Amino acid sequence: MGKSIGFFLVLIFISVFSFSFIGFSNELSQIQTVESLLEEKVTTNDFSLHDNSYIYDSNGNIISEIYKEENRIYISYDEIPTYFIEAIIATEDRHFFSHKGFDITGIARAFLVNAENQSIEQGGSTLTQQLVKNIYLTNDRTYNRKLTELLYAFQIEKMFSKEKILELYLNAIFFQNGVYGIEAASQFYLSRSVSELSLAEVAYLLAIPNNPTHYNPFINPGNTTERKNWILAKMLELQFITKEQHNAARDRKITLNPSKKIDLYPDYVTYIHYEFEQLVGEKEGYNQKIERASTNEHKNQYISRRKKRVEELLSSGIHIHSSLQPKKQENIYQVIAQRIPNQSIQGAAVIIDHRSNNIVAISGGKQYKKFDLHRGFQAFRQPGSSIKSLLVFAPYLSERNSSINNFINASAFCKNGYCPRNYGGATYGNVRLETAFKHSYNTAAVRMLDQIGIETAFSYFFKLGFTKIVEEDFNLPSALGGLTYGVSPLEMTTAYTTFANEGMFQKARGIEKVLDANGKVLLEWDKNPQQVWNKETNSKMRSLLNKVITEGTARKAYYNSGNNFIGGKTGTTNTFHDLWFIGLNEEYTTGVWVGYDQPKSLAHINSRAPHLLIWRDLMGD
């Protein structure tokens, strides 16, 4: 008799709510049916759960897990062990595979209990209703919310198979400590995948979502164990497990083995985040809109949209494959720390595999912390004489078709009040180009720039990817690195890869490809190499670069490379604020910068040549 009354009351309740729901959702002049309204409001797009993203090194190993508030590792129904499904059915929704989204018997029982207690104590929710609550609704215990939940659950049952609903549910539930879904929970609490868990461990994990605070195993392990045993009893009751399995799992003590978020190599990972934003902007048109923006307001709007799009992708479970070579990255840390023991002096290095134009290692500075100012690509400094290769000698050889044995006047030079001096105030006469380069004579370089013309020289330089060159840099002091804003170590190192690639420039990248959650290529950089100078000029430059190490200003960078090529160019700014060396061998181009964050003299360490020793240690390893 009681069940009949309860059933009757529930039917009346649902009917009344259906009318109120229609009235709530539509104006009287535009009344829709409940079915069409639900089809409009409940779509498959609403069920895209946040998923962790990952950055991988060149060996395919994870170096960074990316998530903010929700640590979730989405798995498909086929990957969910049977014990998880049986446990959740036994404890949460025994009629799941037979109902249409709501269980009339459960609702009636809950309604009668609530009526007796004159409050909303029980919900009678099915798994589908709980999924609705997780995706759409709040935890408010009101009849209005409850009946909205019923209608939404009914619609979801029409949209998805039972297996898909279970998949969504087990990936959506909250396990405390920022963890969502069974796979993330398994790895977070036990450091193993769900496929490796025992029956006891499955029941232990599924104890948590019922009341994540009360059953938090870090704080209330006794509560968690008690509910674990209750879950096992329910599984036995429905004959999902045998008495022997039940007893063994009940008596097994669970030992937590919590895992930490993977986040290695902060220098490299920080750069990859920056490059990923640039990749998204390039492929989806944001960068072009930013460049063409007529006002700062419009520019900032496009930057904001690009950032939002990046966040959307990072929450969708993407896989960013990078070119990082961990051993080279670790070597940078060790070498810079060893060669620059002074805590206040900073250093950065970039290593590029110029055969593929991949950035295999990059440092942001000593003791770098993730997302701080990155000295490898965000610090712009005066390049000193290291610019001579790119702005003076290569353009000069190309324009004049000169031999490196031709002579250039290295005597005193003055023009329009600009009178550069050589190191130590030395004066020279006519010298071979090779001599002027390997000993880095300033007067010769400025005279060469003046002879070929500043605009002509910069027509080569602009092809090399420098981002902060302005009109004010079109002057003779630029021959010695006197730029308005300067260059970054990454820019300089990338520019020098032309000497390894027969005069061809290709912007170096750290990202090889980006895959979506299904393993399909989502984004990758286009290859667009550009010829900067011809092969003959490039061959001459390689000879000059080699002489710098074997006979010139960079002899401390020399190492025995056998018959393989090594070469590079030093750079020291006025008053020794910056020390540079950019060089290459047959495989890698490496750039090194040493200096203070707030520029001041490095004269006291210049004789030790830490920039040359760092380069030698990195390349000769």
Strand segment count:
16
User: DSSP strand (E) fraction?
Assistant: 5-15%
Mean pLDDT over the residues: 91
Strand order of the largest sheet: 2-1-5-11-12
Counted by DSSP, the helix tally is 23
Would you state the CATH class of the domain at 53-251?
Answer: Mainly Alpha
Q: What name goes with the CATH superfamily of the domain at 53-251?
A: Biosynthetic peptidoglycan transglycosylase-like
Spans where pLDDT lies below 50 across 5 or more residues: 1-12, 14-31, 117-123
CATH architecture of the domain at 53-251: Orthogonal Bundle
CATH topology of the domain at 53-251: Penicillin binding protein transpeptidase fold
* End-to-end C-alpha gap: 86 Å
Give a quick account of the main beta sheet: strands, pairing sense, barrel closure: 5 strands, mixed
The percentage helix is 40-55%
Quaternary class:
single chain
The coarse silhouette is elongated
Protein name: Penicillin-binding protein
InterPro entries: Beta-lactam/transpept-like, Glyco_trans_51, Glycosyltr_51/Transpeptidase, Lysozyme-like_dom_sf, PBP_transglycosylase, PCN-bd_Tpept
Subcellular location: Cell membrane
Domain Glycosyl transferase family: 60-235
